[in-house]
């Protein structure tokens, strides 16, 4: 025995690859010949530590399994030293797993360490296996094991399994605590399941559990994401009444609120207030600050970039949300050169680039009418190995349709099918609109049949596009058939639908059916006499002519002026809209003077009479002592 100790100490004092081979052989021989208690535990720990230093963690885990079979048990401080030598998480898992599997009565902290390690590595299945292994060992279950796994499941949105574990935990430990309820609320809010968020919160209150700061913050964020400022304000008021102190996450929620209200100045004031209160800003609060400034059109691209530099000056590490917000802000301001810089920085920092980051430049290139550039960004995303989402395909097809670039819309649709994705109703509707606009109603009908056969229900936009196509081709039978099918499918038509139907009936000589159409409009709560059936109100030919001309002029200005001069454009736009209002005022004044001279509505057409009735309040401003015949 003394000779064995001397040999092992000698090998440990002279570590190299040859030594490692000898150590491995000695340990195998000890196990093979069942030489129980031949080595002291402290020497055994030293052998393990040296083996870990030399880097073969598989052999380390094998040695642990073999030696524990012989009755050796390595103490926790020694295991810590061995695990510290691990260069990656997988090696640590092997060693910890070897300890737990080979010695069921190992310290519960090792089980928890391994569960945490698997959860951090997104391996929930292995974490659950460790939990089951611990429970089978006959030891008393631990609440922190369940909490760690449930918290991770909630973050991933796997709420069914999370609820199962909560019920199992309740059997062992009684009702869940506030931390557990917070995890469940976080999970349901990520899934945007409003009913379950309210039910979970109500269940917590019924159990007599007081909401904590974390729960309040989670709920406030949830309501703000739903744009429900009223509910968020009620919760914030409850917090302040209870005297709960503000932390960085709560301040982040308040900054986010300012962002929703398009109040970048208010967001900056809230941030300054946070710093004045001695609360250290975190990445989340800076993300919300960037978001609130990105929504403000008066804030330029350099100002957004300055916020990012301020974040780095605070020694905060940006995450993928930070970069996605920056890309979205730069895309809205058409600073596409800056977007490339942001992508490069993401690559340098090893931050994963997702389809969300690419969606914004693709969308805004499309909105600017540069579908070719949008398609280039799409190809760049594919070449980077990123799978495009349905949202990106919907954006490309919708924008290509709006800009009459039907070839790209069809190309994107074929690519979508080739990748095995199932198109949604928005993709089909956009594609049908593209086919109708290009005059190919036959293909549009085929696409509708393809849509129905694949279990996708059409919406009002789908049918309205088809009715518009048949109205343009003066095909009364098909247009009427689409309208009847729409009613049969219980799809509510909008004003555009009725506008195109009325146009179809007039152009095909079926004027008598317009009365029946007007009755249908009344059933859906629309006024047939109102010009609002195409989302406008009858304001006279002067008004609409000036509006079209002004809009065209603005578009020309936008195309020719540098994006950095957006504020100057807005200023000119306001002047042009004021001019439009002056034209409308002049039209109303002329109408008033005519009414004064005639004192009767009989000479006017039905449309003009309706126009006078609808603009009655505006006309009253010109009235002095006279009385109108209406």
UniProtKB/TrEMBL annotation:
Record PROSITE patterns: PPR
Lineage: Eukaryota, Fungi, Fungi incertae sedis, Mucoromycota, Glomeromycotina
Full protein name: Uncharacterized protein
SUPFAM superfamilies per the UniProt record, alphabetical: HCP-like
Domain of life: Eukaryota
Organism of this sequence: Gigaspora rosea
PPR repeats, residue ranges: 177-211, 354-388, 424-458, 459-493, 494-528
Family: Belongs to the PPR family. P subfamily.
Gene3D superfamilies named among the record's database cross-references: Tetratricopeptide repeat domain
